[in-house]
Amino acid sequence: MFWKIVGGLIVAWVAFMVLGAVIGFLFKAVLWIAIIAGAVFLGTAAYGAISGKKNTKQVGR
């Protein structure tokens, strides 16, 4: 009976280790994707602001 409990604890520990590794990898991947997307967004916004239209027509009434 003692060895069944120890075996169950070891199996649970290994399962949590694998689950933690997978969740950690996914979190890091999503974090890097968000960082890259933010940099691309800021670059695009800066490019649009710098090379925007110089022709600023006002709408007549």
From TrEMBL:
The chain crosses the membrane at residues 30-50. It comes from the Bacteria. Keywords: Membrane, Transmembrane, Transmembrane helix. This is Uncharacterized protein. It comes from Amycolatopsis saalfeldensis.
